[in-house]
Write a structure and sequence with these properties.
The two termini are about 20 Å apart. This protein has one domain (about 5-55, about 105-280). The protein is mostly helical. It is built from 9 helices and no strands. The chain has helices spanning about 5-15, 20-45, 75-120, 125-140, 145-170, 180-205, 210-230, 230-255, 260-275. Helices cover about 75% and strands about 0% of the residues.
Length: about 280
């Protein structure tokens, strides 16, 4: 249920996945972008980026002054700004860089490479990658926010956007004027996938009852959507994949083991998400 499977589901949903050179090149690039590059970005922004003030770094942090602007008067607003900038740069060199320099470099490198790879896939993937990086920035800003906010951002970043990346790498999401129904359908499928992934995150955090309820909602919503788009056979397939999970749910909830629950339901849930993606491909 990670980014790679989301990309594959989105690519299948586009209806343009064929056994040709375009698929052979594009699909691995999309998986590389969503799973390896953007996944690394998300790992960095979720890591411990706190800086230990006063920790021994081996760098005395010489306060090399930042050159002031010509004709800047002492005590003026511009002079105070450059004095502040000089202090912050000294703090960065002496404290932040020795402790977190590798993480900063990795974040910058993976972000830049992600944008470059997305440019090979098309204009909409570039836009989606930029949105993903903006979400990563929000995660940095909201580090002290509640767990629910962090999980919601992760679901969008690691599931919803990768699904759309797979779809737009092969299909066209920009036909709002000519085919709004197709666009809405694709966005709804990406949201269902993100909801299923969100339930996985809640279950991993040992929120068994809440995670199970969200997973049930994802399956029911997927089946209902397939009925709406006149795919009753596929809707029945999703229901058949969901039924064993529903029957086993009371017993699984008594184990109080979120990871164990995930191991039991992961394969049928992945299959259900792929069946849902097939709705627009057939």
């Amino acid at each position: 249920m990670g980014p790679a499977w989301a990309v594959l589901c989105g690519a299948v949903a586009s209806g343009a996945l064929e056994l040709d050179w375009h698929t052979v090149v594009t699909l691995p690039l999309a998986v590389l972008l969503a799973d390896s590059l953007l996944g690394s970005v998300w790992s960095v922004v979720n890591s411990d980026l706190r800086v230990a003030e006063g920790a021994p770094t081996g760098n005395p942090g010489r306060k090399t002054p930042v050159p002031s602007l010509p004709y800047t008067l002492p005590g003026s607003a511009s002079a105070r700004f450059f004095e502040f900038l000089s202090k912050r740069m000294a703090w960065w060199r002496s404290t932040v860089w020795p402790q977190k320099g590798n993480l900063v470099l990795g974040l910058a490198f993976n972000s830049l490479l992600a944008l470059l790879v997305s440019a090979l896939l098309g204009g909409v993937p570039v836009l989606l990658t930029a949105i993903a990086l903006a979400l990563a920035g929000c995660r940095l800003v909201l580090r002290s926010s509640r767990e629910g906010v962090r999980l919601a951002l992760g679901s969008c970043f690691l599931a919803g956007l990768p699904w759309l990346l797979g779809y737009t790498s092969f299909g066209d999401l920009g036909s709002l004027g000519s085919e709004p129904g197709v666009t809405v359908e694709a966005l709804a499928m990406a949201a269902i996938y993100a909801l299923a992934y969100h339930s996985y995150q809640v279950l991993s955090a040992e929120g068994l009852s809440g995670g199970a309820a969200l997973l049930n909602l994802a399956h029911v919503t997927a089946a209902a959507m397939l009925v709406v788009v006149k795919q009753p056979i596929l809707a029945g397939g999703v229901a058949l994949l969901f039924l064993p999970q529903l029957l086993l749910q009371p017993a699984l909830l008594t184990t109080h083991d979120g990871l164990g629950y995930l191991r039991q339901v992961q394969a049928p849930t992945m299959a259900a998400m792929m069946v849902t993606a097939l709705a627009t491909a057939v």
